[in-house]
Amino acid sequence: MISKKYVQCLGDIKLRSIIPFLIVLSLLLSMGAPDSNAHPHVFIANRLHIIFDDEGISGIRVKWVFDKYFSRMIADEFDTDRDGVLKPSEVAVIKKDAFSNLATFDYFTFIKISGKPFKVQFVRDFNSTLKDGVLTYEFLIPCHVKAAKTVKELRVSPYDPSYYSLVLFAETDPVTLVDYNGFDVDHKIAKNTQESYYNGQVNPYEMVLTFRLAK
Q1: Domains, the chain, ranges and CATH?
Q2: Residue 84 CA: distances (Å) to CA of 63, 88, 132
Q3: What Å distances lie between residue 188 and 39, 126, 158, CA to CA?
Q4: 139 pLDDT higher than 80
């Protein structure tokens, strides 16, 4: 049986393909797989805003919505005046103590441009909010990809390599295209069966976006 803790941790977040994951997790627990009781601890619904400019893609805005258990932990630690709202000074401390270290893990956002890895070395415009006890992070990944007459491809896989956090695309509006007029754009979300993490046990879901100059 799956512990009620794992189900309750999902809170009100609807995640893509969470039911198959829970089935697999139940099997792992029943088999006593190594570290199966320790992972994951945090559940994140991931949304991507792909931002275009006159030349092509200019960046990726990422939004994470956390489960209520992790949200409560962050609120207890950083909402120092206990008013249920994160002030700029509190957000600055969250960025320093509970976000910036994710640079080691590419901010859980692994990108390939036409098959070549793109290292996420820094992000901009970080913000964090608390609403009705639910924590969100938002940040911008600068990623410039100039459009051409031929098709270019952008792949984005959100995951935590340590599997401490489970990052899945949100069920509603997982990908939004911003200012893409002038380009032919298509995208989908699918499991990447060619790559894996956590000792080869988990295949990530990824967004695959293709674009070119409009004819």
Answers
A1: 4-213 (2.70.170)
A2: 20, 13, 8
A3: 28, 26, 14
A4: yes
